[in-house]
C-alpha cells in the first residue's frame, strides 16, 4: 500500500512538472498559470496615465493567468511627480516595481533601482528579440553605463494623425474653403474673424484661443515659439539637427514676438480669460463644449475631448491640426520618428524577487501577450483566417469605442509602458502588425465618416499629409535627457521663472509688455543655465557619435 502511494505521488509530481509551465529557475517562484499568483506592488508615477487598474479587466485577468503575476497598483495623486518621488526615497518605502516616468533619474541617483544588464543577458529572451544591441546601448544611463528600465519603443508614428499642431474646428476650415494654414498670421486672422462672425455658441461666449497651463502641462504653451520656428519638441531646447549645437529657448528672440501677439489678443478679449487658472479637466471640457476656436497641443492630450465631441455628434466642432509656422520657415517638425529613452518600468532594490520580476517583464514582451493587450481576445475581439489576424465590422466598432477598450482592457497607456516593439512592426509569425491600429485594415477603418469628408475636401489620404514628412531624429528626443540633481534644480529655476513671466507678460497692458519682458531677461541672466546647456550639449554629441 505504501509503495502504491509513493508511486502515485511520484506520478502526480511528474505530471505537474509537465502541466505547469514554470519557467523560472529555483529558488524563484514559477511565473505561470496559477491559482496563487505572485503579487508585485507597482507604483505608477506617470501623471499622464489614466488610473485604470488593467489587471481587473478581462484581458488583465488573462495576462495574470498566463504569467502567474498579479500587479497591485498605486497611482500618483495629482501631477507633482517630483515631490512624491522625494517622499518615497526619504521614507525608503518602495514597491517592487515602479514606473518613475519623468523623475526616474532621482531613483537612479539614490541607488534605489536594480541594474538590468545581467538580467537582460541571462533571462531577456523576448527583450533581445525586440531590442537589438544598438537599442540597448541607447538605454544605458550615461553616468554609470547601466540599464535601469526598458523604455517602450517610441519610434512608431501614427500614420493617420499628426502628433501635434495648431488646431481649428472643421466648421471654421469649411467656412474658409478648406485652407492649409501654414503661417501664424493667417492662423490668428482666421481665429479673430471666426469670433467676430460667431461671438457665441450654445448661449456661451466663443473662445478665440486657449492654452493648457495646468502644472507641468504648461510646457505646451512654452514650446509654441519653438514649433513655429520649425523645431521639434526637445523639451524647450533648440537643437541643430545637423551639428547638435544646443541653445535654450528661454531667451529666444521670437518668443518675445510670439507672446506679444498673445498679449495683444488677451487685451482684445480673444484669449481665454481662464486659461491661467483652469485645470486640465476644465481645459478639456471647454474643447469638448465646441466653443473653442484655436489652441496648440499634442493630440494625445486632447484625445478625450475629441472622443467627447464625437459622442455628442458635434462633428463640425471637432478640431483638425494645422502645420502652422512663423512666416518664412519652410518645413515643420511636428512629427518625429525615433527611439526615445524615457523611463519604462524599473525594479526597485526593495523588490522581494527581482529575478521573477524581470522574467515577468520579459514575458510581457512575448507575442501571445502582445497580441492580447493590443488586439484583444481571439474569437471575441479579432479572428484569424489563413494565419492572418483581422477584425469584423462589429469588432472594429467595439475597438473604436474608447469605453469598450477601457472595459475590455485593450491598449491604454498602462500596457504601453511595458517593454514592447514598435506598433508598426510585424509579428514573427506574419499574422499582422503589433497593433491593429497600424494594420492595412485599420488605415481605412479608423477614419470615421466625418474625417473622410475632410480628407476628401483636402484631397489627401492622411491628415499627416498636411505636414512635412516625419523626421527621423539622429539624437532621439531632447526632452528625455536625464540631468543630475544640481543641474535639474537650475533648470527648474529657469522653468519657474519662464512660467511666471510669460504668464505675467501675456496678461499685461500692452504698454507694460516690453518692460516685463526686459525684466524677465535680466533675471534669466542670473541663472547659470549655461551649465545645463553644456551638459545637454555633451549628451547630444555623445548620442550623435554612439547612436549613428
UniProtKB/TrEMBL annotation:
Tree of life domain: Bacteria
UniProt xrefs under InterPro entries: SBP
Gene3D superfamilies for the chain: Periplasmic binding protein-like II (3.40.190.10)
Identification of the protein by name: ABC transporter substrate-binding protein
Classification of source organism: Bacteria, Bacillati, Bacillota, Bacillota incertae sedis, Caldicellulosiruptorales
Amino acid at each position: 500500500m505504501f509503495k502504491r502511494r509513493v508511486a502515485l505521488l511520484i506520478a502526480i509530481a511528474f505530471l505537474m512538472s509537465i502541466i505547469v509551465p514554470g519557467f523560472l529557475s529555483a529558488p524563484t517562484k514559477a511565473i505561470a498559470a496559477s491559482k496563487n499568483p505572485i503579487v508585485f506592488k507597482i507604483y505608477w508615477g506617470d501623471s499622464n496615465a489614466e488610473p485604470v487598474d488593467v489587471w481587473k479587466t478581462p484581458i488583465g485577468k488573462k495576462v495574470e493567468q498566463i504569467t502567474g503575476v498579479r500587479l497591485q497598483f498605486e497611482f500618483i495623486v495629482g501631477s507633482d511627480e517630483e515631490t512624491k518621488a522625494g517622499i518615497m526615497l526619504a521614507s525608503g518605502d518602495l514597491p517592487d516595481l515602479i514606473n518613475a516616468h519623468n523623475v526616474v533619474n532621482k531613483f537612479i541617483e539614490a541607488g534605489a533601482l536594480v541594474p538590468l544588464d545581467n538580467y537582460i543577458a541571462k533571462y531577456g529572451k523576448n527583450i533581445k528579440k525586440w531590442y537589438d544591441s544598438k537599442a540597448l546601448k541607447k538605454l544605458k544611463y550615461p553616468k554609470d553605463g547601466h540599464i535601469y528600465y526598458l523604455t517602450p519603443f517610441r519610434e512608431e508614428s501614427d500614420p493617420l494623425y499628426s502628433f501635434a499642431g495648431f488646431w481649428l474646428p472643421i466648421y471654421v476650415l469649411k467656412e474658409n474653403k478648406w485652407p492649409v494654414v501654414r503661417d501664424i498670421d493667417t492662423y490668428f486672422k482666421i481665429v479673430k474673424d471666426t469670433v467676430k462672425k460667431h461671438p457665441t455658441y450654445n448661449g456661451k461666449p466663443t473662445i478665440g484661443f486657449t492654452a493648457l497651463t495646468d502644472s507641468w502641462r504648461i510646457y505646451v504653451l512654452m514650446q509654441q515659439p519653438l514649433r513655429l520656428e520649425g523645431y521639434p519638441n526637445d523639451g524647450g531646447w533648440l537643437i541643430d539637427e545637423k551639428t547638435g549645437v544646443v541653445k535654450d529657448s528661454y531667451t529666444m528672440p521670437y518668443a518675445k514676438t510670439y507672446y506679444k501677439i498673445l498679449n495683444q489678443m488677451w487685451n482684445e478679449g480673444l484669449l481665454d480669460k481662464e486659461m491661467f487658472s483652469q485645470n486640465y479637466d476644465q481645459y478639456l471640457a471647454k474643447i469638448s463644449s465646441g466653443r473653442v476656436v484655436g489652441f496648440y497641443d499634442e493630440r494625445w492630450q486632447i484625445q478625450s475631448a475629441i472622443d467627447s465631441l464625437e459622442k455628442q455628434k458635434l462633428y463640425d466642432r471637432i478640431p483638425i491640426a494645422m502645420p502652422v509656422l512663423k512666416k518664412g520657415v519652410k518645413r515643420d517638425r511636428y512629427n518625429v520618428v525615433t527611439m526615445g529613452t524615457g523611463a519604462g518600468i524599473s525594479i526597485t532594490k526593495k523588490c522581494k524577487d527581482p529575478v521573477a520580476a524581470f522574467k515577468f517583464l520579459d514575458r510581457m514582451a512575448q507575442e501571445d501577450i502582445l497580441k492580447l493587450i493590443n488586439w484583444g481576445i481571439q474569437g471575441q475581439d479579432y479572428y484569424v483566417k489563413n494565419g492572418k489576424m483581422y477584425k469584423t465590422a462589429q469588432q472594429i466598432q467595439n475597438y473604436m469605442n474608447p469605453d469598450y477598450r477601457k472595459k475590455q482592457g485593450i491598449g491604454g497607456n498602462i500596457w504601453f509602458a511595458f517593454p514592447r516593439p514598435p506598433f508598426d512592426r510585424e509579428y514573427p509569425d506574419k499574422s499582422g502588425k503589433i497593433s491593429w491600429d497600424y494594420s492595412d485594415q485599420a488605415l481605412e477603418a479608423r477614419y470615421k465618416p466625418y474625417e473622410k469628408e475632410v480628407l476628401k475636401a483636402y484631397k489627401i489620404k492622411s491628415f499627416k499629409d498636411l505636414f512635412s514628412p516625419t523626421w527621423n531624429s539622429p539624437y532621439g528626443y531632447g526632452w528625455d535627457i536625464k540631468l543630475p540633481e544640481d543641474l535639474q534644480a537650475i533648470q527648474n529655476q529657469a522653468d519657474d521663472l519662464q512660467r511666471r513671466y510669460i504668464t505675467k507678460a501675456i496678461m499685461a497692458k500692452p504698454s507694460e509688455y516690453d518692460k516685463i519682458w526686459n525684466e524677465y531677461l535680466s533675471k534669466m541672466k542670473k541663472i547659470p543655465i549655461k551649465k545645463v546647456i553644456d551638459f545637454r550639449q555633451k549628451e547630444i554629441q555623445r548620442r550623435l557619435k554612439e547612436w549613428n
